[in-house]
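tl;dr need the bound structure. longer version: we got a ligand (F0G) that a collaborator sent over and nobodys looked at where it sits. i said id run it. heres the input, straight from their email, havent touched it
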Amino acid sequence: MKTIIEPFRIKSVEPITMTTQTQREQFLVQANYNLFSLKSDDVIIDLLTDSGTSAMSSRQWAGMQMGDESYAGSPSFYRFEAAVKELAPFKHIIPTHQGRAAEKILFSIIGGAGKIIPNNTHFDTTRANIEANQTQAIDLVTSEGLDPQLVLPFKGDMDLVRLRELLQSRCDDIPIVMLTITNNSGGGQPVSMANIRAVKALCKEFDKPLFLDACRFAENAYFIKLREAGYRDKTPKEIVQEIFSYADGMTMSGKKDALVNMGGWLALNDDDLAMKARNVLILTEGFVTYGGLSGRDLEAMAIGLEEVVEQDYLHYRITSTAYLGNALNKLGIPIVKPVGGHAVYIDARAMLPHIDPLHYPGQALAIEMYRIGGIRACEIGTVMFGLQPDGTEQAAAMDLVRLAIPRRVYTQSHMDYCIECLAEVYANKHSLKGVNIDWQPPALRHFTAKFSLR
Ligand code: F0G
């Protein structure tokens, strides 16, 4: 069967406010052409992020009623802890309100001036939390992972040669090695089990712990099942368990593959680090059995972790993201290949070669998608990365627009609508002009900058 059947029925609906192009043109002016400044009620299909935007199941909503809000020792914590350990049997499970809180705690205890943390590609909050502790964040993804057009099964893999060189030359300065699964900043590309195993072997050789930034661990596991020899007959859960068996710790945003709207955790085996992490947790997040979350949030995560490794769910998730990407590819729209797990990334620089990178082709494309179809996506390019610390501008390595797909939220007809809208944008691409930045803050400008059309 070619039709992707969503493996759920809809019990509770959330109306979408339909808008006209004329209305959206007004909303764009009011938002200074910054899509982060739009009211989400004015968006028809919101593909800004897959983070915290999942639909919860009826089981999760029912589980929330079981949430126990005791300050200390809540049964909800123990259910959450058991659910994490079922997949990732680390000794210490420390809840946090989201992924970056786990990162902040971890790097505040292992970072410091002169230290280095390698990763395939650090996500922005990970990098920022590392750098906030005067530590250097280094990306060592394979060179193939940086070529948007190359079709390879595991473009999230770590470059083992460069990792070995770094471990040899700077061994004393490296507190941990990280791997981000899937590699969000590199197009949502997965990391192979062979690469995880090889990175672990290098870590063992140099006596370094391996930590996973595991936000999208289940999607990564499903790619291993589909693409790596020897895994076809294993269940997603067995593959997830094998992945975590190679790690000494993890940071996690539950807002992705725990299928919840808020939550995360830090997990690790080292007793001394865990003690230090819990001390920071109590200062900044809350007591060790709730870490900035309600008991009901912990219940929802515990159930989400069971649901996310279900075969039917993962099949639907990965094939429906590919459905959108493959349709855009067929239209001739350049996308990052192969399609990743959680998002389709359009190569705006390749699609709009007449727009100079310093006139922000990604932003121009994202604005047009909203104007034509009320679709909100996210520029990941020169607007996000082009401003240098000395205030000058430089084109980013790529100008991408990310269409991130919320989990269990949109149906195939919503995706067909997006495809139709993008076909229209593509047909008129020569009419698109770049944008100017009229105002910007000194850092993280993409969230609040004001733009105008050229
Ligand atoms: N690591 C990765 C790989 C992520 O994608 C994110 C968040 C985080 C860490 C931080 O987690 O948001 O719970 O604090 N990514 C979101 C996104 C924001 O849109 O890609 P958080």
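gonna send this back to them w/ a short note. The chain has two domains: 21-50+310-453, 58-307.
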